[in-house]
UniProtKB/TrEMBL annotation:
Organism the protein comes from: Desulfitobacterium chlororespirans DSM 11544
PANTHER family to which the protein is assigned, alphabetical: INTEGRAL MEMBRANE PROTEIN-RELATED, PILUS ASSEMBLE PROTEIN
Segments crossing the lipid bilayer: 6-23, 101-119, 125-142, 277-301
Keyword Transmembrane helix: yes
Keywords: Membrane, Transmembrane, Transmembrane helix
Tagged with keyword rRNA-binding: no
Protein name: Tight adherence protein C
Length: 302
């Protein structure tokens, strides 16, 4: 029937749109947005609004599965840690898990529908391919986070280098290390997209825990060797406040130079890796993906 054939095409388009919505949802549509708004937790804890349609459809199933088998605290914390390292500060582990659940349901369902329509001996093969695709794509949201972490690390290194430069400029203006840190945070936090999360936490820790403790927490949170060097130098500067800081500032400048060289080296290495990947491989992967996901629905029109 011609009507059925057109219905298959429409269904394929809708499913493809749903897939893209869950993989690349607008930032304003993350579930975490509702729960982060102060004073609205109780009103929004039992309903999901202002999210993508797929998110709304999958949330009841996700909630039910959590009741049957809740996510362990260690796994939840691990996803949260990966989100922070990837720069997804507005997201929560629930967002990642719903994306995983959607992939696990969407791919087998889509392939199963296509298999039922095509029928014949190919039905079981197509259904099996859908299950395999669902299992593979279940890991996709976590794999995407790991890919983002590499770019985030480069961005953090570049922005922390600028932050260190600002700090040195402030210290050179005869400010104490504590005053220089506050000035550097104030001047850098609004311009550092990746580092602002850590700088804002660092600023809050200075006020509540003191500078020495806040520096220790900064090094522990970021877990970067260049941050440890910065922390050690500033702690020594605080310890020897009032004395000649020339040697300490020189050591920090040397660290700054090393950080700048590291930024350049990492970008060069990344570009070398990307340059080794032929363009036709990427085009071929896209062609295979489009053929598997949508192409089968047009077979009935031929």
């Amino acid at each position: 029937m011609p009507e059925l054939k057109y219905l298959i095409v429409v269904l394929a388009g809708i499913l493809f749109w749903m897939f893209n919505r869950i993989i690349n949802p607008p930032k304003t549509e993350f579930a975490a947005r509702d729960f982060l708004e102060q004073g609205k937790l109780s009103a929004k804890a039992d309903r999901i609004i202002s999210k993508s349609i797929v998110h709304q459809l999958m949330y009841p199933l996700y909630s039910r599965l959590q009741q049957i088998r809740p996510t362990s605290k260690s796994h939840y914390d691990d996803i949260q840690d990966q989100l922070i390292k990837a720069g997804e500060y507005d997201s929560r582990p629930e967002d990642v898990q719903i994306a995983q659940l959607t992939n696990a349901v969407l791919y087998p369902l889509f392939f199963m529908v296509i298999g039922l329509i095509i029928g014949g001996d190919k039905q079981h093969i197509i259904t099996f391919a859908g299950v395999a695709a669902g299992l593979y794509m279940y890991r996709a949201p976590l794999s995407n986070l790991k890919a983002k972490q590499k770019k985030q690390d480069e961005q953090l290194l570049a922005e922390f280098t600028r932050f260190t430069t600002v700090y040195l400029m402030q210290v050179s203006g005869n400010l104490t290390p504590d005053e220089a840190l506050k000035k550097a945070i104030s001047n850098s936090s609004s311009r550092a997209k990746a580092l602002s999360y850590y700088l804002n936490k660092f600023d809050s820790d200075i006020e509540t825990k003191g500078t020495t403790r806040a520096l220790h927490e900064l090094g522990k949170t970021m877990e970067k060797s260049y941050v440890d060097r910065f922390v050690n130098n500033v702690q020594l500067a605080i310890k020897h406040a009032g004395s000649d800081q020339t040697t300490l500032n020189l050591r920090l400048r040397e660290s700054l130079t090393e950080m700048s060289e590291q930024v350049v080296d990492e970008k060069i290495n990344r570009l070398k890796v990307e340059a080794r990947i032929p363009v036709f491989v990427s085009v071929g992967m896209i062609a295979v993906y489009m053929t598997v996901i949508i192409g089968s629905s047009f077979v009935m029109l031929m």
